[in-house]
Amino acid sequence: MTATTADVLPELRDALGAARVSVEAADRAAVAHDLWPRALIRVRQGDPPRPPDCVVWPQTPEEAVAVLRICNRAGVAVVPFGAGTGVCGAVIASRGGVAVDLKRLDRILGWDEQSGHVTVEPGLLGITLEEACLERGYTLGHYPSSLPVSTVGGFVATRSVGQLSTRYGRIDDMVAGMRVALPDGTEVRLRAQPSSGVGPDLRRLFLGSEGAFGLIVEVTLRLHPVPEHRADAAFRFADFATGVAAVRTMMQAGLRPSLLRLYDADDTNLQVTHLGIGEGGGCLMLTSCEGRRAVAAAESEEIAGICHNSGAAALGAGPVQAWYPRRYMIGYQQAKYLPMPGVVLDTIEVAAPWARLVAVYDGVKAALRQKLVVLCHLSHGYVDGACLYFTFAGAASEEAGAVPLHEELWDTVMAQVLDNGGTIAHHHGAGRARAPYLERELGAGGVEVLRRLRGALDPAGIANPGTWGLP
Amino acid sequence: MPAEQQSAARMCASCPKMCRSACPTQAVTHNERHQPWGHARQVVAALREDEGFVDPELVDGVYACATCSACTPPCHVDGVETPDLVWAARAAVHRAGATPAAGLESVRQARAGMVPSPDGAAEMWTDPAATLGRLRAMATPGADVLLFPGCGALGRRPEAVLAAGRALRALGVAFDVAVEHRCCGMPALTFGDEAETTQLLSRLLATLGAAHPGQRVVVQSPSCAWMLGVRARQLGHDTPDVEPLVATLARALAEHAADPREHEARRVSYHDPCYLARHQDVREQPRAALAAAGYTVTELRGRGDTTQCSGQGGGLPLTHPDLAAGYLRLLASQVGAAGVDEVVTGCASCAAALRGAGVPAVELAEAVAAALGAEEDEPR
Questions:
Q1: A346-380: per-residue pLDDT in tens?
Q2: Closest partner residue to A101 among B32, B41, B77, by Cβ?
Q3: Cross-strand partners of A220
Q4: Which DSSP letter does residue A312 get?
Q5: How big is chain A by its Cα radius of gyration, in Å?
Q6: Which residues of B touch A (CB under 8 A)?
Q7: What was the ipTM of the complex prediction?
Q8: What CATH number does domain A330-439 carry, 3.40.50.2000, 3.40.50.150, 3.30.70.1070, 3.30.300.330?
Q9: Is A229-326 a domain of CATH 3.50.50.60?
Q10: Do the bridges between strand A138-139 and strand A224-225 make them parallel or antiparallel, or are there none, so unpaired?
Q11: Pick from B14, B45, B60: which is nearest to A339 by CB?
């Protein structure tokens, strides 16, 4: 333990009570990392990332503020921790310090059903919130595959995106207001509004801030009525590029299906087994349209027409309906293979404008297909482009080669994406995983903006040091 | 640890914590390590060390679990059965000589035929002879049904044992009772003593087989029913025909066409005990029994796969009483939200714990006996 962390333990115990301050090794080890594959490989090798010096569990926003003030005075690092299901290493305590586990801040604070707002604390599990919404006839519309195991605070801090984002938007679009504690304990209340034109949108400043600007202690989110109807339809395209063109036509025509997934040929061959749709071949597209019955049916019909005009074969609703029960199950594959020596598994989500999307796809596939299994699907469509979600699986010949292989994987993908005109992240955040590539992504000027913002908001440099590569 | 459980630990520790929201220990503690993923991680770390299974933090982790199996339905990793992993880890702890003292005492008392006290306090053990004597007075020697109450029912809520006798008699089900009470070995399994588990189980099975050949053994305590009906076979024992009491009561009520009398608590909820609902898939029979007995059942938020454990299993009240109390608070809040007169459960230990927390609760046999007007002991 660093001397400074030891120094603040009495104050932390006074503020929270001794039972909610732990220096036990097992408690610290459990929050030493998230699900960043490189950290998981290191855990497998018996060399886990350095844990924080202690873990605290505030159970009110005021207690979280007290923790920040205590640590800020002493210059002790503070690392926020929700459910630890991030995949980019945002919560590694590079400098030790205090991990602030926010899961006791898990209340639903209030509903404004007329406006369609719900206000919650950051430690609330996504699935718990969604179930509460459904009981009242609403949905958040946010369905990341981690929904059963991740928190609202994590969604906001990493700018997550759910499977139905093409209709409902990303979490950025769902946040109407928030309450933030800056690293020195200063409170910022950004009231819930439908839109506001006062200066830069400060909500956006804290969206994706990954703990570097303080702690998010309250969030107001926008609700949608549970859709009256859902129309499902699947199609098979001759190739990925043709499917991409069809998606572009849909997006630029103003269609907004809730579910829109186009699998490349390799991913299709895997999906046909899972979804029970017979033979592989071609590229599978899954769509759902939802909302008012007549509107959803009409939207689905338009999509079917575009697919037909692209030469796609209609597969009916069956594959989509087989997909929904499996929507959160990707994590189980990791459990099976990750313990094996040498194994490297990861997913990397990127985005690109339509004009560059196929080039990014081709570049990544070509660069890595000789070394790894490379699957890809397009999801999350926009009027000007889309996300490409790559899945990688492979193994080094020996365990010692796993980390170098993982590093090579990331270097290669990031270079291909940047060289071909895409952005290196779509919805997993940046954390440590993307820190080496930020300068190419944002430019020197963009990184300087981040550095100065951090310096202004956190002069003591205590807020999650190391994320984005900042000290 | 057996190789397959070492593999299970590694897979569980590599999962993105998919059962997190189901785990009551996680819900109570909010501590990242207190969920199957975290405990499995501790086991994997212990496997790397010579003295890993004596580490107090490891022991704390593997005992911070009621073996309620809430994590099982959301787990889709082939080769991982979390309760089996927990028992294997506890066995490793036992071999290392680090079993909690309260657990060792529990096994000693079980071997001696003693049962837990009504309030479940670690220091108090009682002799069930008096309750068994009253039950035996209602019994029919040599009947086709042998009623085996089990330690939990005999100790935690003897009223439920006597109610079982009365209900069965009122329904025309003749039953016999074993000559003396013997433990099924569940406490030994719970506290990692594999040799003692086998000895206790074998002793009871020999008693049941020898004294009552061909009888159906009707077991009141859910964990004993699981031990005799499921685990015994997994361990390679020849087992008798075993049925949980709730299933016997449901069938008898269906056949009896009883006309339940009016009584006060008609609006009830049914709490699924973990060792019936999740470990044995016994879910519909108790509800059918309550309906046949004239009760209207309002379901709790957690039921079947998602039933909220009361915290009485896995040795939790002995090793982590605060955690067990936290489980109970979660269950009590569900009962409060249901707005019913009373909660009925198929487990006497759950009923006793709920009553201890101020929640009106009875074991299913008590509810059935009350509905049938069989509220006084009725010697044969």
A1: 999 999 999 999 999 999 999 999 999 999 999 99
A2: B32
A3: A119, A177
A4: P
A5: 22
A6: 7, 10-18, 20-21, 30-33, 38, 41-42, 45, 48, 57-58, 60-61, 74, 76-78, 80
A7: 0.94
A8: 3.30.300.330
A9: no
A10: antiparallel
A11: B14
Q: If 0-12 CB within 10 Å is exposed, 13-18 middle and 19+ buried, where does residue A242 land?
A: middle
Q: Which among A46, A57, A334 has CB closest to B16? A: A334
Question: What are the pLDDT digits (tens) for A213-234?
Answer: 999 999 999 999 999 999 999 9
Tokens 């077991």 sit on residue = B219
Name which of A130, A149, A330 to mutate to probe chain B: the one with the most chain B Cβ atoms within 10 A of its Cβ.
Answer: A149
Domain A3-103: give its CATH architecture. 2-Layer Sandwich (3.30)
Q: Do B33 and A29 count as a contact with CB atoms less than 8 A apart?
A: yes
Chain centroid, CA B305 distance in Å: 15
| Cβ atoms of residues A400 and A283 within 8 Å | no
Architecture of the domain whose range is A108-225: 2-Layer Sandwich (3.30)
Helix (H) or strand (E) holding A424: none
**Chain A: residue whose CA lies nearest to B59:** A26
Q: How far is A143 from chain B (nearest CA, A)?
A: 15
Residues of chain A found within 8 Å of residue B20, distances taken between Cβ atoms: 83, 125, 148-149
Cβ distance B31 to A101 less than 8 Å, yes or no, reads yes
Question: Which stretches of B200-341 are assigned E, i.e. beta strand?
Answer: 216-219, 241-244, 267-271, 296-297
Choose among A30, A334, A336: nearest Cβ to B33.
A30
What domains can you pick out in chain B, each with its CATH number?
Answer: 3-98 (no CATH), 102-249 (no CATH), 258-371 (3.40.50)
Most B-contacting residue of A336, A343, A399, A428 (CB-CB within 10 A), to test interface: A336
Query: Largest Cα–Cα distance of chain A, in whole Å?
Result: 70
Prediction pTM value: 0.95
Beta strands in B76-144 (DSSP E): 115-116, 125-126
Q: Which two tokens stand for residue A428?
A: 């997993």
The residue whose two tokens read 């702890």 is B93
| Contact map slice: A 290-309 vs B, CB within 8 A | none
- CB contacts, 8 Å: A31 with chain B: 32
Task: Tell me the pLDDT of chain B (380 aa) as tens digits.
Answer: 999 999 999 999 999 999 999 999 999 999 999 999 999 999 999 999 988 999 999 999 999 999 999 999 999 999 999 999 999 999 999 999 999 999 999 999 999 999 988 876 656 888 999 999 999 999 999 899 999 999 999 999 999 999 999 999 999 999 999 878 899 999 999 999 999 999 999 999 988 876 566 789 999 999 999 999 999 999 999 888 999 999 999 999 998 765 666 555 589 999 999 999 999 999 999 999 999 999 999 999 999 999 999 999 999 999 999 999 999 999 999 999 999 989 999 999 999 999 999 999 999 999 999 999 887 765 54
For residue A328, the chain B residues in CB contact (below 8 A) are 18
- Give the best residue of A101, A327, A334, A428 to mutate against chain B (max B CB count within 10 A): A334
